[in-house]
Design a protein that fits this description.
The strands form 3 sheets. Strands 9, 11, 12, 13, 14, 15, 16, 17, 18 and 19 form a 10-stranded mixed beta sheet that branches. This protein has a 7-stranded antiparallel beta sheet with strand order 1-7-4-5-6-3-2, with no helix packed on it. It contains 11 helices and 19 strands. The N and C termini lie far apart (about 80 Å). It has about 425 residues and is an alpha/beta fold. The protein has 3 domains: about 70 residues, Elongation Factor Tu (Ef-tu), domain 3, CATH 2.40.30.20; about 250 residues, Rossmann fold; about 80 residues, no CATH class.
């Protein structure tokens, strides 16, 4: 029988403090007040003091109300019945359907033992040339999308959810505008992808603590499905909102701030989520693709800066396009040598020529006279942006490779491409 405590010694915002013993970090409690029963979670332990974040807020709670600990951390179901469902950040149904209570599991557990991991070796096809062809997404990879507020990163995530060749999509939304939530829900439902998707959505009007729970909810479900042999893609947006929620609670707790007001354990908290990406030996896999917005387009901001040390590359989304420079998939060489014999060559050649095109654009802007080669590069660069970088392009990898050869042939002579003769003889359009 768990103890019931009748005295709240302090309230600061939505955080209440009591004196209690035999309580663990992240443990749940019920706060019984005149306005009803509220769920709370332990967020800090200091000597005999226990600090709890009340999910619904502390309004209506008084110092004489009862607090009863439940003896467990937050749990979520790992049942197949979760597919096609939409939940809040604390796992309550958001779609007005019954709760799912079968196969309950704890959230926020440790990352997988390295001995149980295998080297990533499988490509995840998305139908987006700038990913499939140039920055291949690899099964069990953890990779962020660096962008700024207002970019179409949620539209990109929805498209990946529709087209990625995986078994299950787990979508975690943090601090979403309600319009963005409706966009995800309606898009996945209309295109028939909701039936293989589990959504955990925290909107900007929901309690802050629920934002912190979203990644743990999403990744706990993803891990359970991966252990059953499924290829799972976890899509998280936006990890900067997650970090800002951490900062807000740390300020409430009067913790000493670190860089730009963020708590000192920001790196550890981000790494604990990203390291859930895994390819299990003899089972399925978890791949994590997470949006990280950069305030002021500042890559040195603590959230993208720490993220870059944890993840295996990044996609830069600017002006509605995935930029070829700065974007990087560190695991792409694990798989793009197994796709088609020309993949690496056409990838390297097209990026090299696009870099030359950028230099030619600078020369043109400064008024230099254009040579015949410069004019070829100008034509090539415009075709590259139109056929490869435009996110409306939706073609399989093989068609993208063929389109790359066609683009080269329309702009250059075979000898000008710098490609090996045997590949030119095999792939150059006749």
């Amino acid at each position: 029988m768990r103890k019931v405590y009748h005295r709240i010694i302090q309230m600061a915002g939505n955080v209440i403090t009591i004196e209690a013993d035999n309580v663990s970090y992240d443990e749940l409690a019920e706060v019984h007040s005149a306005s009803g029963v509220s769920l709370a979670q332990v967020i800090r332990l200091q000597d005999e003091k226990v600090f709890l974040q009340v999910f619904a807020g502390s309004r209506g709670i008084s110092t004489g109300d009862q607090v009863r600990f439940l003896g467990r951390a937050m749990q979520i179901s790992s049942s197949e019945d979760m597919l096609g469902r939409i939940f809040t950040g604390r796992g309550a149904p958001r779609d007005n359907r019954p709760e799912v209570i079968d196969k309950m599991i704890n959230i926020g557990g440790p990352s997988v033992n390295p001995a149980k991991r295998i080297i990533p070796k499988n490509m995840i096809r998305t139908g987006i040339p700038m990913i499939d062809m140039f920055n291949t997404l690899v099964e069990s990879q953890k990779i962020p999308i660096f962008s700024i507020a207002g970019e179409n990163y949620n539209e990109l995530l929805a498209r990946i959810a529709l087209q990625a060749e995986v078994d299950v999509i787990v979508l975690g939304g943090m601090g979403l505008k309600y319009d963005d939530y409706l966009y995800f829900r309606n898009t996945l439902e209309e295109k028939g992808a909701l039936s293989r998707t589990v959504m955990f959505v925290h909107t900007a009007s929901d309690p802050v603590v629920e934002c912190l729970l979203v990644p743990d909810m999403a990744l706990a479900v993803a891990e359970a499905y991966a252990l059953e042999g499924k290829r799972v893609l976890a899509l998280l947006t936006d990890m900067t909102n997650f970090a800002d929620s951490m900062k807000e609670i740390a300020i409430t707790m009067e913790q000493i701030p670190s860089n730009r007001g963020y708590p000192g354990d920001l790196y550890s908290e981000l790494a604990a989520r990203y390291e859930k990406a895994v390819d299990f030996d003899g089972a399925g896999s978890i791949t994590i693709l997470a949006v990280t917005t950069m305030p002021g387009d500042d890559i040195t901001h603590p959230v993208p800066d720490n993220t870059g040390y944890i993840t295996e590359g990044q996609f830069y989304l600017r002006g509605g396009r995935i930029e070829p420079f700065g974007s990087l998939s560190r695991l792409k060489n694990n798989v793009n040598g197994e796709t088609r014999s020309d993949h690496r060559t056409i990838m390297d050649t097209m990026i090299r020529l696009y870099a030359d095109y950028k230099e030619t654009m600078e020369k043109q802007s400064m008024g230099f006279q254009m040579t015949r080669w410069d004019n070829k590069l100008l034509k090539y660069g415009k075709l590259f942006e139109q056929r490869m970088m435009d996110l409306s392009v939706n073609i399989p990898l093989e068609e993208a490779l063929d389109l790359g050869w066609q683009t080269l042939a329309e702009c250059l002579e075979p000898a000008e491409s710098g490609i090996r003769t045997e590949l030119i003889n095999q792939y150059w359009p006749k």
